[in-house]
Amino acid sequence: MNRPLNRVVALLLTAILTSSGCHPTQPFYLHEDGDLSHYLDAATEIENPDIEEVVLDEVSQSRAPLTLSDLEFTEFRDMTLEDCVSIALQNSKVIRNLGSLTQFTIADGLVGRTGASMTIYDPAVFETDPQFGVESALSEFDAQFTSSVLWRGADRPQNFGGFVGQTIFSNFYRQQYGQFDAGLSKKTASGTTFTVRNQTIYDSNNNPSRGVPSDWFTAFEVEASQPLLRGRGTQVNRVPVVLARIRTDISLAEFEASVRNMIMDMENTYWDLHFAYRLLETAKIGRDSALVTWKNTYVLLQGGKGTAQQ
User: Fold this and answer.
1) Of the candidates 25, 52, 151, 293, which lies 20 to 30 Å from 143 by C-alpha distance?
2) pTM for the model
């Protein structure tokens, strides 16, 4: 760099430093609106969660439970055991068992957490598990398509030029190079892998030894590979699928067992409730009979024919 140019650069730097002065700089944002209203009104706005949820009809239209102060049964519904089982199977997405009874005769299986309970979605979850499910094991035999694109440009100086022998070399080597690869492969149950590949190359450079300035090259390949030892045979390659299917069968058996236990608990509860109603009616009859006996004895006592002990 010569001296006049150095002097011009020094004057420009001095002018820039003088114009800026010693004052704090403000942050600069791309696509700034001037007064930073977007960052004050939108970016720094506190977002409150939407807690308004639609109430289920089963909850909003339900009646208050029976209490000691309100023991009047306004509506009775005579239901058979088959009706109870049908309603339970149609509406129980989470299958909960009765479990043991607490000291207040409350089924802890009904009021406890349902995190470990079976649901109607468990068999489907096991079937489509991305690691151990049947679909994951079968994906090993899916056709796979792979592709890649490469583009490269070169513009570099060379340490030689002019005539070398009978060839003229340029001082700069310029090239545009592109490559596209695509392939489709499929693995069979016996372990054989079939692959079809295509490779297309484009090359353009200023090498004087070339007959044309640019050219295209395309190659097609078909490949079939068969392992001789490890990974050979349908029995070996289908082991992950068989194991995944066994896990699914186990989940189905557990689901059926949970449904069986729920029906058994429901049947026991149904007859316990039936017995409780009969016991209640018996208690009412006993109470009414005792009340009639007391009234008759009280009338005799008022007439002087009875005693206080009676």
Assistant:
1) 151
2) 0.52
Assess whether pLDDT exceeds 70 at residue 130: yes
Mark whether 104 and 243 lie in a shared domain. Answer: yes
pLDDT at 6: 66
Pick the more confident residue, 179 or 230.
179
Mean pLDDT of 269-295: 89
Last residue of a domain, one of 219, 235, 251: 235
Residue 249: inside a domain, yes or no? Answer: yes
Phi, psi of 8, deg, nearest 5: -65, -40
